[in-house]
């Protein structure tokens, strides 16, 4: 009987150790995100397709596909991500004029301008907040959130008759 109880204690202790280690690792902010972890943030995993050798930011193709981007938009996004951030999700251009708190400019892979988080007449809570994409500027440094923000901006532009890529002068 004592042996069975001891096994349970060991299993519980091991489980707690693994959970705590995972929580500590998740809280680490000293290492920036440099590639896509397909087990985090995207729930509808699609079949992996090969990435063309000509891709400028191949590490982000699967993420875009998993988020539901059509292939033609993935190809366009590859060029835009490379031009805007050189494929680096922590990129920040402080030269754009919009400011929210301590943040000013455009952030992340797609260099989403903070205008999309500002309160406006059409979107009193902000466009991205209203669409449940991002709440604060620092959210845009997360590659999945940044790609979802770009996706929402593209969908909005298409809904009013645009090509979708007007925010990046990509039409």
The total count of strands amounts to: 5
Overall pLDDT score: 82
Largest sheet: 3 strands, antiparallel
Structural class: mainly alpha
Poorly predicted residue ranges: 14-32
Helix content: 25-40%
Radius of gyration: 20 Å
Strand order in space, largest sheet: 1-4-5
Shape: globular
Query: With helices defined by DSSP (H or I, 4 residues minimum), what is the helix count?
Result: 5
The separation of the N and C termini measures 73 Å
Assembly form of the protein: single chain
Summarize the helix and strand pattern as letters: HHHEEEEEHH
**Estimated share of beta-strand residues:** 5-15%
Fold blueprint:
Layout: H1 2-27, H2 61-66, H3 71-85, E1 92-93, E2 99-100, E3 103-104, E4 106-107, E5 112-113, H4 127-130, H5 143-159
Antiparallel strand pairs: 1-4, 2-3, 4-5
